[in-house]
Amino acid sequence: MHAWPASEVPALPGKGRDLRIHDTATGGRITLDPGPVARIYVCGITPYDATHMGHAATYNAFDLVQRVWLDTKRQVHYVQNVTDVDDPLLERAVRDGQDWTELAERETALFREDMTALRMLPPRHYIGAVEAIPGIVPLVERLRDAGAAYDLDGDVYFSVDADPHFGEVSGLDADAMRLLSAERGGDPERPGKKNPLDPMLWMAARPGEPSWDGASLGDGRPGWHIECVAIALDHLGMGFDIQGGGSDLAFPHHEMGASHAQALTGEHPFAQAYVHAGMVGLDGEKMSKSRGNLVFVSALRRDGVDPAAIRLALLSRHYRSDWEWTDQVLADAVERLARWRAAVSRPDGPSADVLVEEVREALADDLDSPAALAAVDRWAALQGAEGGTDEGAPGLVSRTVDALLGVAL
Predict the structure, then answer these.
(1) Cα–Cα–Cα angle for 304, 306, 309, nearest 5°?
(2) Radius of gyration of the chain, Cα coordinates, nearest whole angstrom
(3) Which CATH class is domain 20-286?
(4) Paired strand residues for 274
(5) pLDDT in tens, 155-194
(6) Which of 157, 223, 210 is nearest to 184 (CA)?
(7) What is the number of alpha carbons within 13 Å of residue 206 lying toward its C-beta?
(8) Where do the CATH 3.40.50.620 domains begin and end in the chain?
């Protein structure tokens, strides 16, 4: 599966700062020192209704991570999956009378278009669950052979008790886990499971649903969590720098994935940091496909909204915050974009050297994009009020906003 084209990232004078970021597993900020190649895995879409503002906010956060790392002169090895076979996708296809593969291909293509318009840097590896199945089957077999998985009426389940570190990612107690498992794709009430929290690794073929040859597992399809584990281990290995996604993935998805990988390898941790973006709401509710309260990037683009304004709207809220999408949020972003473009259109201006360092410091401090925007606002206000004589300043501001915030002025 191919990703989308990359926009050029301008080089800035000097060097950026190492990233300090909030780690869900420890509950505090840690400073990451990835070495010459930073490794990040971000969970991708289930392509049946892409791309709403909640998606866009999440991928914007991890795009900032890449930009901070690139500014430190590191390479970035970024991997993202597409869950192109899963219950919600199949249910939507049945509801709408569509072939599930055509639905997945159409929505994935739309997601690529939205990511390109928003100037999100693409992953080096963009992998669909279906194409990962040949690598998933041996992992499930290994877990079963090691006693970390078991058969139940033809399905194969992972035993959470096989990982002594289970629970360390989310920090939740068993009762909270059980409630979230039931809400987020698990089946804690299924009879015969060794532990209600045990997640499915391999689902035996069901009538009318797609299935693949699972060798000794029999025909079927993979569970949700093992998909990401197989892709991440194949392309990044254990101990990569950041496992990222929305806050609703901390449990069960990231918790279960970490345990799968740790049981497979005997190593810990799966990732150095677990980083989660907040939820975007609309009309007092979390924006989600199940509720249908969605604002789509593609719809805004069709209405003529500049993608740079959409991106500025996302940047105006801290990535870990839960926040509400409103018309005013977008209107403020449109106005800010106009002010910034007017400021950099002049032939000279106030020195921007301090601005570059302020934006770098803000983003290195747990991706504080609102503080970064405020720094650019101050320069633009000074430009409007007093101007300046530095002929290189407007260009440096443009390159800084492009390189670090992903906004083309």
Answers:
(1) 135
(2) 22
(3) alpha beta
(4) 243
(5) 999 999 999 999 999 999 999 999 999 999 999 999 999 9
(6) 223
(7) 9
(8) 20-286
Distances (CA, A) of 400 to 15, 16, 158, 372, 374: 12, 11, 47, 10, 14
Is 22 in a helix, a strand, or coil?
A: strand
- For 228-270, the DSSP string reads HHHHHHHHT-TTEEEEEEEGGGIIIIIHHHHHHHHHHHS-S-S
The token pair at 348 is: 């000279």
Is residue 296 classed as helix, strand or coil in its secondary structure? strand
The whole-number pLDDT of residue 291 equals: 67
Cα–Cα distance, 263 to 359 (Å, whole number): 41
Token digits for 178? 């059980």
Residue found by looking up tokens 């949020």 in the block: 329
Query: What pLDDT does 101 receive?
Result: 96
Q: Strand pairing of 280-282 and 323-324?
A: parallel
At 362, list the tokens.
Answer: 């803000």
DSSP letters along 154-206, please? Answer: TEEEE-GGG-TTTTTTT---HHHHHHHHHHTT--TT-TT-SSTTPPEEEEEP-
| pLDDT number for residue 50 | 77
- CATH 1.20.120.640 domain span(s) along the chain: 307-405
Amino acid at 130: V
pLDDT score, position 379 = 98
Tokens of 78: 């970024």
Q: What kind of fold does domain 307-405 have according to CATH?
A: Four Helix Bundle (Hemerythrin (Met), subunit A) (1.20.120)
Asked if 346 contacts 391 with a C-beta cutoff of 8 angstroms, the reply is: no
pLDDT value at residue 236:
98
CB atoms within 10 A of CB 182: 13
Provide the pairing of β-strand 240-246 with 37-42. Answer: parallel
In this structure, are residues 297 and 54 in contact, taking their beta carbons and an 8 Å threshold?
no
End-to-end CA distance of the chain: 31
CA proximity to 140, closest of 197, 225, 207, 81: 225
Residues of the chain with pLDDT under 70: 287-292
